[in-house]
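Re: [help] complex structure
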Amino acid sequence: MGYSTRERTSHVLRRLGMGAAAELAASLPGPEAAIAAALDLSEPPTTPPDMAAPPDRESARNDGDVETAFRYWLGRMAASPRLVEERLVWFWHDHFATSLRKVRVPYLMWQQHLTVRSLATGSFAELLHAIAVDPAMLLYLDGASNRRSAINENFGREVMELFTLGRGHYTEDDVVAAARAFSGWVVAVPGRLQAPNRVDPWTAVFLPFRHDGGSKTLLGVTGRLDAAAAIDVLLGHPATAEHVAAKLYGCLVGLPADEATRKRLGAAFRRDYSVMALVEAIVADPAFTSDAAVRARVRTPLERAIGIAQGFATSDRAGQALLRGLRTAGYVPWLPPNVAGFPAGERLLDPHRLIHGFDLATLADPRRLGRLGASGLFARLGVFDVDAATIDRVDRAGGPADRLALAVNAPEYLVA
Amino acid sequence: MTESCPLVTRRRFVQGLGATVAVVAAGRYGISVWGRDPAAAAPAPPPGSWPVPEERTLVVIEMGGGNDALNMVVPHQSAAYHDLRGGLAVADPIDLDGEVGLHPAMPGLAARYAAGGVAIVEGIGYPEPDLSHFASLSTWWSGQPGAVGATGWLGRWLDGAVGAGDPLAAIAIGPGPAPALAGDTSFAVTVQDAGGLSPGVPPWVDEPAELVAAWAGLAAAPMDSPGLLGRVRDAVAVTAAAHDRLAGAVGPAGDAPAPSRGSLASSLDVAARLVLSPDVSPAVLYVHGFGDFDTHQGQPNRHAALLGELDEALAAFLDTVAAGDAADRVLVMTASEFGRRAASNGGGTDHGTAAAHLVVGPAVAGGRHGQPVDLQHLDGRGNPAHTVDFRSVYATVLETWLSADPTAVLGATVEALPLLQSR
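Output below.
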């Protein structure tokens, strides 16, 4: 059927960033320019806010810290000029899903976030090495209790099933071997740990006496593997590059990668694990801007909220309403439902999440509505090519506010 | 058939949803749903294959993460148990019969067991067990080991009961759709709390009462939109229709303080309201999102808290339905992707296989069923062999409680167990 240039431009911004801000979209002549704008990292990043290291575990649960962090992150998603960075920061958080519910220390979630943010557009290899000994991850997947005398398989299993190889490429013996290789790392919780002197609080510490230094065989590689060596083994396996490349392809294109694409992207990715080179290869695939890719994804509650914030929020109103709406939808950053990350795709079309899309509308500020009709509302949401019947029905709703509440729940806005 | 609730639309919706459990299992791990597998060998049972039972509700409680059943139904006389578990062994179980006891956090269920209202089924599992949460969940959801591409077991029951005819015949209570309810032609609504499907409408909306109807109007706009957009329209239409029917069925009632959202108490509070509601009569309620039973570490406190939550929430649920004169209408069963490793890992337990489960309600034949696992003969991974096929529990409730044909639902003939009193 063919989408308009404006819809295709929005499509590029929605996929490569976390939303299609109306002003930016309007300034771009077409999808090619949108790709260039979204991938442009020349604008320097802003400095994230500071968060003080809590003096002990008891004072570590500070909700104020959580709010500051969320506000910063969600603000970046809505307004950063470095679009692809925000897309990738979210992608990696979803990929290396870690939950505050179990970690319980906002400061550690924030440190992980800073790690992810600093490496999001860099090297996947570097990112994976960092995550393997990231303090929040050590608590979330129990690496911190994994020791020679009591091997804990949690991280060793999930790192292969979810973060690297994917199912079908490892055995239960590999799970045990990986777990042994990762043993010995702990988190320096102030006042709790008998660690060597001069360890910074809340950092990851390797304690040799807790590490299983014996020989192990992981994916056919035998040696006295430690955490770094085990990660290198995983990075060396072709399945890792293919799994991660195909997952990012699915996220950006909105369609599954076919076998040839998977192999091609994986082989290139494995050479140096450059994330931006992978993004560029995916974007260069004609599928990325094809009609089949446009509106092929269900817009996630987070993306819906970001779009509403971009179009209609004022800062004094957005914070609380946004968090409340995301909580109702089960889509709060740092609170993934499990280690597999946030739900995506058509399972987001469940009645609970659908109807509570009206809650998300609360973060819009009706003072910003003016006298916009349906077409104007959709344009501010970066949505074009809306069915005439939809426009007509939205226009017939009560007042401008009612039109807005309907527009952000219209089927055309629920896809992206 | 099509006047108030767009059934044709809904049928297109569920049939069009392409994401099967298998497809998603490849990418996002089996948490898909509503999907159908076009290549599935067995066709969906047509609606009317069996009746929707009147005044009977099956409540499934999924204990996500893998419940350590060995510390729930504790073989306290077993030397092997104490050897394997060491300091993690439950020291003071509530003895049931001199051989096993329930975890001390479960006094309510222990009392109910003594009164004959609890069936304990030991040794439940499946061959060639998979220790991945997501793969094992897919097996439990589908009810078809090795054929993870299929629909959910209760979704197929729903297909054969009502097809697309009633999205409230089965309801998922939890943070999203329940894959076990994924049907081929059928569709099951999801609710999360006592708000039912009532949105938090922004305070600045002029005509809040008109909003959902206007929204349904957007879904009805071009009747044959292809692809994802069409399926979204269908989902909106179903949701709006279910919103209207659920409006009186759940929602705040009385002065009792509402349990905190997301807790099992909250989910079972919703379940009780639905059972007692005169407006809807769901035959299946699937409660999920309960707990993080994945106790690799810090198990003693975490597990005790979870089992205590189960005990209290279940007691409240059964008391509420009994007070509403509906005790005989409910049968509760537990599910979980696997049990945990026989041996302690120091502070917890890693992923395991066979596990005991509970079936609770006035209709059960109380006591111990199945066969305890043999802790003296573990496999190479340190797990005991299962003694009972998990599908035999499904077959039992399908045949005896839901009056359906278990072979048609499960695609295999599986022996039922004498878990329910003959009636």
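Chain A has a mean pLDDT of 94.
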